[in-house]
Amino acid sequence: MKILGMEKSSFIDYPNKVATVCFTPGCNFRCGYCHNSYMVKEEGEEISQEEVFAFLRKRKKFIDAVCISGGEPTLQKGLYAFILKIKQEGFYVKLDTNGTSPDTIALLLQNKLLDYIAMDIKAPFDRYEFVARTKVDIEAIKKSITIIKNSTIDYEFRTTVCKELHSKEDILEIAAYLKGSKAYFIQNFRDGETVLIGKNQFHPQDIKVLEEIEKEIRGYFESFKIRK
Ligand code: SF4
């Protein structure tokens, strides 16, 4: 289990909780708009689990949860043992995933090791490979969606939207597939120096388009939000 970065206190990564975020290196996708390019390229200094747990024990009064993000955390061999240890220390656990490992998600859920899952939905299924810029096992993605929807924990599906990659129809198609889920969030793209294919390649979708989408899918989900 490799950890390549840690955000000590985050107020935005776990709904209504203060969380420490651990980032794992490596990803099986290559989304051009990815903000964590250094994680995908596995660049940076490794942090030991001992360091993570020493910090968590010291700040236990102030930290409620640990978010495991990436990269793609389910690629890590020691993920199960790492999460088990976090739970034994008494923290909530949130997993951020691209949904390519449904069996790992199922195992973690079966053993009550997760309290929250955030799964990225990259595109309508026929455009997944184009957006993720690699081969994608669509059946695995669908299986993860079903497992998460049928779970009893809190979860969210979320899509990062770029003008160049996602039309209004694309988002409506994704929303129709996910209809009936607890939560779906649209995150508008933000440019930056750490974007995987470089700055100025993608642009945020027009707010007007996102608001039109919001009107059309109102009522599909218990919770729906546009993160602008
Ligand atoms: S956005 Fe997520 S799934 Fe896509 S390359 Fe980056 S870390 Fe991987």
TrEMBL record:
Keyword tRNA-binding: no
Pfam families with a match to the protein in the record: Radical_SAM
Enzyme class: oxidoreductase
EC number(s) stated in the UniProt entry for this protein: 1.97.1.4
A GO MF term: iron-sulfur cluster binding
Gene3D superfamilies, per the entry: Aldolase class I
Keyword Oxidoreductase: yes
Protein name in the entry: Anaerobic ribonucleoside-triphosphate reductase activating protein NrdG
Species for this entry: Clostridium aceticum
Classification lineage: Bacteria, Bacillati, Bacillota, Clostridia, Eubacteriales
Encoding gene (name): nrdG
